[in-house]
Design a protein that fits this description.
The chain is of the alpha+beta class. Helices cover about 15% and strands about 35% of the residues.
């Protein structure tokens, strides 16, 4: 899964969530369905750039509410 914002680092994602920014997740293409509520993995930066980080997150209705690791 990706976030609507193309975070270049995991640290930037963590900071945005900690600030309370609305960070929404989505699964591009829909081939592998993402989780709307629960835990899932976010990757970044967005394709076609090579993925440099992965984060396990807690989602509520596709909104990232916590970065777990």
């Amino acid at each position: 899964m990706y976030t609507e914002i193309d975070f270049q680092t995991k640290k930037a994602l963590k900071e945005a969530v900690a600030r309370g920014d609305k960070v929404m997740a989505y699964q591009p293409g829909g081939v592998f369905p993402g989780t709307s509520t629960g835990t899932d993995t976010i990757e970044g930066p967005h394709y076609p750039k090579p993925h440099k980080w992965y984060a396990r997150v807690r989602l509520e209705n596709y909104q990232v509410v916590k970065v777990l690791r």
